[in-house]
Amino acid sequence: MRAVIQRVTQASVTVGDEQISSIGRGICVLLGISLEDKQKDVDYMVRKILNLRVFADESGKPWCKSVMDKQYEVLCVSQFTLQCILKGNKPDFHMAMPSEQAEPFYNDILQQMRKTYKPDLIKDGKFGAYMQVHIQNDGPVTIELEMPTSTADPKHLAKLEKQQQRKEKTRAKAPSESSREKSVHRSKDDPSASSGADGDVSSEREP
What's the predicted TM-score (pTM) here? Predict the structure, then answer.
């Protein structure tokens, strides 16, 4: 499964002359389902999409808040072309899940999103239709999200997830900026103090 997530100020889907859905500020999710996708993959993708931190917090600090944190909208559009494999210059889509299987699978993803978040804030296009998707990308910010490879050790992936969650809790309990400044000041005065450098901690955090 592959998703392209764009932070938007507005987005909409039109089929023919009819606009069937639209959102204001939030994220637009283009979702491609592959033959290899299983039901267990749905929970992973839904959690990642809804918890992806692409918004600033109240103080303007970027990459801190998710669409759920901000109570923004989500527009989800099925797009099998994300499973494209090029053969020369010709797109090949044999890795995309056939529509008769993909439609219930896609609907289940929407159901899980609505169950996890607010149902009225989850919008979607029209599965299988020829759509015009209008996206006003904010930033621009575009994030590609893909399921971990099937060859990866599930136990190892679970371990990495737990490590990220521990890091998240540690960051939440991190000392204030003033405390860090005092600590640095003390280390300069005390030669025996440890000389840990204040490195730049990435703001990309796992939910």
Answer: 0.71
| Helices of type H across the chain | 39-51, 67-70, 99-116, 154-172, 177-189
Contact of 26 with 115, CB cutoff 8 Å: no
Range of the domain at 84: 2-151
User: How confident is the model over 128-180, as pLDDT tens digits?
Assistant: 899 999 999 999 999 999 877 644 455 655 666 677 667 666 766 655 444 45
CB atoms within 10 A of CB 152: 11
The DSSP code for 1 is -
Instruction: With residue 150 as reference, give the H or E element that holds it.
Output: none
Q: Which two tokens stand for residue 72?
A: 């923004």
How many domains, the chain? 2
Same-domain check for residues 102 and 132: yes
Q: Do residues 78 and 145 both lie within one domain? A: yes
